[in-house]
Amino acid sequence: MAISIPNASPLIQSASSEAADLPPRAKKRAKMKASPSPTLPSEIAARIQETLPEVVIAQPGSSG
Known about the structure:
3 helices
């Protein structure tokens, strides 16, 4: 086990350094991939808030 720990350390370091090496363009691409639809964060938050009450109301109804 003691041998595995030092072997994992360099792997993690290289991974973190690679992420930092990525240019801003790559980061922007990743963000676009995460949210293909051009929706504002506030809009998403409003959608979640609108959906949450529905789920909360449906739970007691189905259990009762």
